[in-house]
């Protein structure tokens, strides 16, 4: 669907992109993350043909952004960070205007208007001037304008920027709904939005891709910049707390044990290990005792911690 090949971009002597490459399959919702100046907005503007790369190319639905710019624009819906809305236009007129810009066939106009008004929740404001709408509704109007021509790919730059918590939830749900039919690429600085919305996250820093995986895998694999890990277990044993801690500390690579709860001989523990994957060793040890194990899970970091780990010192 989208194949990015060795994109570079210079602004004078400053290199904003340093030969990045990635692929996005149909139906994915992918988050593009990075600190300010990392190159994420530059990447989106190149993919939408607003900027030309210094070198490299991107193939979108089999079309090169270098050789088939007009055809690429027809299959992309783009919502920039500051959506170009016209406050004196009513919502209906704006959507018709956007349909004309995208050269939507007149025979399809009513069908598309009906669809975008419904999916974006604009029925109540369809006749109102855009200038009278809340920030959340304005963002919905921008999204509706971006998909009026039924693009296969939707590219959103900071779509929840400036919204209140309730509006953020509404736009998040709308993006997930649109993602059922389209490939969606989202640039955002709100990391919880990526965890809640995206099937994949690409982290860019200083013009390079430094991570590309599912949010869950990123949390598991990059939560610590060392190779340590944290394990939570629940066991039943007659041993006292100090005995449990002493025995576990004798297991290879375990350097700290915390007792979270102790009731009716059921103990909830947090184990800290210098091993990247200590669960097998812990399980073998417990199996050699008379303890009963109820649960053992690895604690994963949230995406915010991962982001900080990968980009700290470089912002």
From TrEMBL:
Which GO MF terms are attached to this record?
Answer: ATP binding; ATP hydrolysis activity
Q: Which InterPro entries match?
A: AAA+_ATPase (IPR003593), ABC_transporter-like_ATP-bd (IPR003439), P-loop_NTPase (IPR027417)
Against SUPFAM superfamilies, the record matches this protein to: P-loop containing nucleoside triphosphate hydrolases
Alphabetically list the UniProt keywords.
ATP-binding, Nucleotide-binding, Transport
Pfam families linked: ABC_tran (PF00005)
Q: Which residues form the ABC transporter domain?
A: 2-231
Give the record's family classification. Answer: Belongs to the ABC transporter superfamily.
Task: Quote the protein name from its UniProt record.
Answer: ATP-binding cassette domain-containing protein
Q: Which organism is it from?
A: Brachyspira aalborgi
Phylogenetic placement of the source organism = Bacteria, Pseudomonadati, Spirochaetota, Spirochaetia, Brachyspirales
